[in-house]
Amino acid sequence: MAGPPSRPGWFAVPAPVRELFKLFPLTTLPAESLPERAPERTRPRPCLYVFARTLEDARSGRPSFNPQCLKWQTFLRIAGVQVHLVPSNNHASPSGALPFLLPPTTQTPTSEKESTTTPSSNAVTKPTVPLTGAKIHRYAKDNSPRETLPDSPPSRTEAYEALLLQSLRPAWLYALYLHNSNTHLLKSLYLPPSPILHLPSLHTLRNAATDEILNTTRRALIDPPQLLADATDALRSLSALLAGDDWFFGQPGPGLFDAEVFAYTYLILDEAFGWADDYSLAQCLAKFDNLVEHRRRLYERCWPEAQGEQVNQH
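^ Thioredoxin-like fold domain-containing protein, sequence as received from the core. Prediction below:
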């Protein structure tokens, strides 16, 4: 006598579903390509992730609108290291801040035979570690086709870098993030496209800028006229340091400190940037002719492809 029919297991496919799949068999679709902004699986040249207004600005290598990004973008050009710019934001950065650099990928053959031939599609791509700050500096120096890159005297550099960070940067932050006339500019540069997110994002940016200014100046309140006066004093000291020379510290060519100063002077005098305030850092900078000339000289050196465009000067 035949036993009772066995009960289907928990994972058995019901008969109606089996019949449905007979009519419409499961098809595996080909994988879609990565989004245009996604990191490349293989990189023939280094990628520098920066703030940029548009994808076209990044593709054409135009100067970033962010001083920290522009500093390293400029230094890599000084070093002669060709990079691919990728528009990004702080949320995409491993360190939480831009810029960061991904070196070119290298491939490891999967077999001894492949090691003596052209790497195939089976070769394993080694992951690369994002570089920031001093590591970008080291990468640029190690991979520069230039015979030498000038090194500024460390002791003197630290003192003048303090002028930029403690006197010029707070005035920059106030002008861009807190001055009401430049709210439209701040929105176009940093705020998300969704109007719903504008207000909370604007508050977040302004609170962060306020905290940084107060922590840097060590004052209880923000004093805009004093910030502008401090920035003017810093520019005066930089002008005196540069006096009689083409590049800072009397070096035969531009170095990292030149790039750091340029990152502010270029943007402050850039008429296309979109400044709309009467709290004018541009008016302060325009008083120092040699800093304006330094800006022009370094732009022409690092962006020779843009020589058809006039460098805006006040």
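Residues 154-249+274-288 form one domain.
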